[in-house]
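Justification of resources, computational component.

The compute hours requested in this renewal are based largely on the per-chain cost of generating structure records like the one below. Each record pairs the submitted sequence with a full structure-token output. That output is archived, and it is also reused by downstream analysis tasks.
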Amino acid sequence: MHVDSRVNQVGTGMSAMDLQEKVPILREGFLVKRGHLVHNWKARWFVLTPDKLIYYKYEGGKRDSCQRGKIMLKDCVITCPYLEYDNRPLVFRLQTKTCVDHFLEACSREERDQWAGDIAAAADKLEDLAGGVDEGNDSPDVSPTTPESSRPTLINLSKVLEAMYDVHSGINMSSHVEQGRMYTNCFSGSAVVDWVVFAQEALSRPEALSRQEAVTLASALLEEGFLRTVGLRSVEALRTAGPNELFLDDSTALYSFSDNLKKRGCVKAETKLSAVELSGHVIKRGYLLKQGQRRKNWKIRLFVLRSEPSFLHYYDPTKDDIIPVGGFPLRGSLVSSLDDNGVPSGVKGNIQGNLFNIITQTDRRYFIQAPSNREKMDWIDAIREHT
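The structure output for this chain reads:
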């Protein structure tokens, strides 16, 4: 196992043209954007084409026909991930040629990396057209003829830290007692190793690490200053152990994130919701539009589907709060697609389409709108598996 402690940066980004023009759309979907003058966060619909990134506002349940802004991507630089925002680990930064920063947040690590990769690919094509790129091999360390099985697997520590820091699927922070003292916002060494062993997606590996490999990776995080010791047990191990024993796979050894990382959230705030309903494994997450229960207005929400136990929670993506604004158990619920021909009973507003509804076991009805028919069907299938 090779560990790469360099911070990952995806090269330069380029893209897009107006929808009214007949130009290719490379990618489109919801992102949450930080404002320039007022630094609040707003969900917008983004469209990437070969030289611009255009964004639109959703008014009620439908996207505006007029663009709200565009980002010219020639000579832009993307930083992904960008870990400077408290409770927003899915942000990437786009810096324009004129040094204007745009901060954009995706709904998941996969979505964020795909957006960053597509923008970077468009940038490379523009650079090729400008004649500024050597078309030779960009990866001299690994020969194209090297068999896939013999190529080393690099693990980027910043990516691992980011995944571990994620408020929804990262490691759980809680209170622990050691030798009569109470420590908050920390975790045990064995909890870190457990998390790493099963974090195949975060590590971009097809198979799980062994427990010893996980300890080696945790030691690297500690050496790089991403994690810090908490309490006497872990401090003593760091001071006296050999180079391969810096990190203890022990339930009594305590660790936390480094002080230069902003706190992910107060542990006490998590007691507002049942710890059980937030303990399930995250199956699916994404931006969807939801009709309000009382005012019947449409809002963009980040939906998170969990299993064991099966719950569907939704968050306000414009807020930094890690607590869901709502949610319900899926056991006994019914989910169904709604016809886009006409407005179904109970639905208000000027909707875009791709509707489905969920009726809970307590007979409460939720109307939800997906950005596309494919996403609607993906959500329906995923929810049905856990009802």
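The first helix runs from residue 109 to 129. Residues 4-20, 133-152, 263-272 have pLDDT under 50 and may be disordered.
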